[in-house]
Amino acid sequence: MKNVLVTGGTGFLGSHLCKKLINNSYKVLCVDNNYTGSLTNVESIINHPNFRFIEHDIIEPLAINETVDEIYNLATPASPVHYQGKAALFTIKTCVYGSINMLELAKRYNAKILQTSTSEIYGEPLEHPQKESYRGNVNPIGVRACYDEGKRLAETIFFEYYRQNNVKIKIVRIFNTYGPNMNPKDGRVVSNFICQALHGDDVTIYGDGSQTRSFCYVDDLIEVIFRMMNSPDSFTGPMNIGNPHEFTVKELAEKILELTGSKSKITYKPLPQDDPAQRKPDIMLAEKTLNWKPTVQLEEGLQRTIEYFKSVITGADR
Q1: Taking a C-beta distance cutoff of 8 angstroms, is the pair 309, 198 a contact?
Q2: 223 lies in a domain?
């Protein structure tokens, strides 16, 4: 039985990953400071004999008394609501100090370590769709730079540990992902639209709604992350993961209004600084190397996510 450490394990993606690992008979050490995560996300496995939770901020070194075979590093705020403003320096420290601390742990135990990077490293892309070879167009001093540049530097740190210390690394670049366990207040477009529609509030689009995104359902994303970790050590990435089917933000809002049956109206506000106009992954590398492509279509995934948020809202009302 493998011992696996998951940082950010009570968050949106981390909680789904922990459940998949438990279901595949792994022993899971879940580490999180619960800044954006919640123990309610892992309540179905919290008492499982192969699951253990440690409340810890990976900005500080982590001391554990057991060996680790694999590390999934998912820890960092991933939404502008949570990483901008007063949290900017915290986000940078998580990307940099957190990466170093987890890489040192991987080095100590000769563990394989996977870094969840992001499509944000491409910035406002001048190439469409974005391939792994594209180096990006990022504003290094903008309000999103703490996350964009933090993740870019994390990739640099991972590859230096790979080159200088022979640490076994994997890097995936995650594009827009949605599904159950999203934080209702995380400011992401899918959760925003669904919660606004269910509450009967105006559905707020920033910009004119013509900007595009590609939305991947969480189950598809977790599957490819799992496959990446179990691929040959010689394959390091970086590798794009996401759904290449592209939709405008306005199309997304209209689809959510249709599926929820909401009478909410669409309203428009100015586009935030450095918000990209287009975002679509080229996933040929994942298809070729891991025989993976997403299977859950947008309408099906949205229906599942809407049902989740209905239960969250009903529970909060109670």
Answers
A1: yes
A2: yes
Tokens at 239, concatenated? 């590798």
Question: Which of the four pLDDT bands, split at 50, 70 and 90, describes residue 246?
Answer: very high
Beta-bridge mates of residue 71 = 5, 113
Q: Please say whether the dihedral angle defined by the alpha carbons of residues 111, 13, 129 and 289, taken in this order, is positive or negative.
A: positive
- Could you tell me if residue 196 is inside a domain? no
SS3 call for 170: strand
* Burial class of residue 155, CB neighbours in 10 A (0-12, 13-18, 19+): buried
Q: What is the mean pLDDT of residues 242-264?
A: 95
Number of H helices, E strands in the chain: 9, 13
253: in domain: no
Under a CB-based contact definition with an 8 Å cutoff, are residues 181 and 304 in contact? no
| 231-256: average pLDDT | 96
Give the integer Cα–Cα distance in Å for 84 and 82.
6
In a domain, 204, yes or no: no
Query: In angstroms, rounded to a whole number, what is the distance separating the alpha carbons of residues 64 and 106?
Result: 12
Q: Contact, 37 vs 15, CB < 8 A? A: yes
| Minimum mean pLDDT range among 60-69, 115-124, 196-205, 268-277 | 268-277
Asked if 258 contacts 266 with a C-beta cutoff of 8 angstroms, the reply is: no
Q: Is the pLDDT of residue 316 over 70?
A: no
For residue 237, the domain's CATH number is: 3.40.50.720
Tell me the one-letter amino acid at 291.
Answer: N
Residues carrying an active site annotation: 147
How many structural domains compose the chain? 1
CA distances 15 to 26, 35, 78, 207, Å, are: 14, 14, 15, 32
Question: Whole-angstrom Cα distance, residue 146 to residue 132?
Answer: 21
- pLDDT band at residue 73, thresholds of 50, 70 and 90? very high
Query: For residue 39, which of 55, 25, 26 has the smallest C-alpha distance?
Result: 55
Q: Which range of residues forms the domain containing residue 41? A: 3-178+217-243+278-296
The pTM of this model reads: 0.94
Q: Give pLDDT, residue 188.
A: 87
